[in-house]
């Protein structure tokens, strides 16, 4: 298959961009987790508070086309916590057998994407990090995200680390988002699951 050859490492130059807020932890590209993860989770209620914003990643010449982790929500009273993946490539990507975990460093079994999980070009895949209890349509991982921050690791179909992000502490309904899609990380008020991040 040519699918995997089409993928590019997502971590290379993006951590140094001007949009990265000084208060945001650098994404943990390439590193092992620096913090132990007990997977103990704070209690979280679910509801909705979506603040969609128009953005066009392709309009920003600084964004290199790639499949990337794109947005994290770890604390909300109105919507399930989630992880968003963005396919900035110009072809659909088959993520069958890929997996994601908040406990790579401790050997936790990752949550595996079901066979047939495909992200179309320019589209998003939302993985609800809700211990599998949320009602939103889509994938529901068997873990949640600590609002004090934790490390999320995306693995490809051969269980090789594809991207790892150290998500910083976030306030209520804040997200750790690439601005624009596929761009540099920043802490943002509001969430856009399955839709464009603010530009
Ligand atoms: Ca949480
Ligand atoms: Ca967790
Ligand atoms: Ca989004």
Structural description of this entry:
This protein is mainly beta. It has a domain at 1-8 and 66-190: Lamin Tail domain (Immunoglobulin-like, Sandwich), CATH 2.60.40. The protein has one helix and twelve strands, in the order αββββββββββββ. It has one helix at 3-6; strands at residues 67-73, 82-87, 93-94, 99-101, 111-112, 118-119, 124-129, 139-141, 150-155, 161-167, 174-179, 184-189. A six-stranded mixed sheet has the order 8-7-2-1-11-12, with no helix packed on it. A four-stranded antiparallel sheet has the order 5-4-9-10, with no helix packed on it. The radius of gyration is 15 Å and the shape is globular. The chain binds calcium ion (3 copies). One calcium ion binds at residues 39, 41, 102, 143-146, 150.
SS content category: mainly beta
CATH topology (level 3) name of one domain: Immunoglobulin-like
Task: Provide the list of bound ligands, each named once.
Answer: calcium ion
**Main β sheet profile:** 6 strands, mixed
| Straight-line distance between termini | 34 Å
How many whole angstroms does the radius of gyration measure?
15 Å
Q: How much is the average pLDDT? A: 80
- Quantity of strands, as a count: 12
CATH-scheme architecture of one domain: Sandwich
Q: Tell me the name of the CATH class of one domain.
A: Mainly Beta
Low-confidence stretches: 1-58
Which bin fits the share of residues in helices? under 10%
* CATH H level, superfamily name of one domain: Lamin Tail domain
Beta-strand content estimate: 25-35%
Strand order of the largest sheet: 8-7-2-1-11-12
The general outline is: globular
> What is the number of helical segments per DSSP (H or I, 4+ residues)?
1
List the quaternary state of the chains.
single chain
Helix/strand order: HEEEEEEEEEEEE
């Amino acid at each position: 298959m040519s699918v995997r050859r089409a993928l590019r490492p997502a971590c290379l130059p993006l951590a140094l961009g001007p949009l990265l807020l000084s208060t945001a932890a650098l994404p943990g590209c390439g590193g092992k987790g620096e913090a132990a993860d007990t997977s103990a989770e704070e209690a979280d209620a679910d509801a909705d508070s979506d603040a969609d914003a128009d953005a066009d990643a392709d309009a920003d010449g600084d964004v290199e086309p790639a499949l990337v982790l794109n947005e994290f929500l770890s604390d909300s009273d109105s919507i399930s916590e989630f992880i968003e993946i963005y396919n900035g490539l110009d072809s659909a990507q088959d993520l069958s057998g890929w997996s994601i975990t908040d406990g790579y460093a401790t050997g936790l079994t990752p949550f595996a994407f079901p066979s047939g999980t495909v992200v179309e070009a320019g589209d998003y895949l939302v993985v609800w990090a809700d211990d599998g209890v949320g009602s939103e349509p889509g994938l529901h991982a068997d873990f949640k995200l600590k609002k004090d921050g934790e490390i999320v690791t995306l693995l490809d179909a051969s269980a090789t680390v594809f991207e790892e992000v150290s998500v910083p502490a976030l306030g209520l309904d804040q997200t750790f988002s690439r601005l624009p899609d596929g761009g540099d990380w920043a802490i943002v008020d509001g969430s856009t699951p399955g839709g464009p991040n603010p530009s």
